[in-house]
Give the backbone structure.
Amino acid sequence: MYQLVVDGGHLRQGLRWYEKTRKIRAADKALISFDRSFMQVEALDYAFVARADGAWPGTAKVSATVLAALAKAPPTSEDVQVSFGDGKLRIGRLAVTCTWEPVSGVILGAPAASDWIAALSLKYRIPRPQIVLDGLAPKVADAERQLGKLVARCAKSLAPLHVTEADLHEMIERRLIEHAQVNRGPDEAARQNVGSLVAWVPPPGMWPGANVLGAVMMPPGVEVKLQDHRDALADKVQAMLEAEDDPEAALAWASEELQQVMPVGPPEVRWAGRWMMDAMEGWLREIGALTAERGRTPTTNDPEASLAIKEMTLEEWVNGISPSNQS
C-alpha cells in the first residue's frame, strides 16, 4: 500500500473549483500524483497541489466525479490520509476503484524538455501556469540563455549582410509560433502571437478603479475569456512576487493581508500566482479586477493598463484588493 498525509486546508481549497464545475461525465478522469513535497491533482483541464508527505511512486487514475463528490463533502481534518492499495484509492473515508500506473509507465502531459530546443518551444505550446506547475520554468530560462549566446555568435558572422540579433530572434520566434500553431484552432493560434500583445484592462466593477488591478497583456482582436484573464493575471502576480527581495516573506505578508478572502495561503512561492487566482476568483470578479465569463476584445494599448503593468508592485496590488483597505 502507498500512502500520503496531505494538508487538509490545501486539499479543501483545491477541491473548491470542482464544486463549481457544471458538467462532469463519468468518463472524465482525474490523475493524482506526488512530487517530493506536494500531491498533485489534475482533471478537466485544471490542476491543484497540496502539501503532502509519504510514498506515492506512480499516478492514480479515477473518475473525475470523485473530485466533485469530495468538493461537496470534503474531509474536515487538519491532515487527510490518501492511500492506494488492493485496486482502491482512499481519500479520508471515501474509497473508490482506481487504476494505478507506476512512475515508469506514466506519460507526462508536458514534454520533459530533455534538450534546450525542446525547452524553448514549451512557452508557445503550454500555458505559463502549467510550465511553473511542472517545474519546467528553470529549463525554459536556461534554453533562452543558450539561444541568446547562439544568436549573438550568428549575428556576428552575418553582420556584413546587415543581419542583426533582433532579426534572428524575430525569425526564430516566428518559426516557434508557427510550429506551436499546428493543429490549433484560430483563437488559440491568435493567443500564441506573443509579439503583438497589448495592455488591456477589464470593464469597471463594484469598486472604482479596481479593474486596473486586473490589467494584463493580451492579444488584440481576440475576445478575452475568464480563463485567459485568470492565467494572465496569475502570471502577473507571480512575476511581482518573484521580483521581491524576499519572495517568501512577501508571500507570508500577502497571505496574512488577504486572509479574509484567501483563508488558506499558497503552500510555496512557485504556486502563488495560480493559487491566489483559484482562491480569490469570486472576490476578484466581484470587485471588477477579474473579467466575467467574457470580457471586451482588446484592440490597442490602454494607457492606464500599460502604466499599471509596468509600475505596480505586489504591495500595491495586495493593498488594492484587500477588503480591509476599502471603506
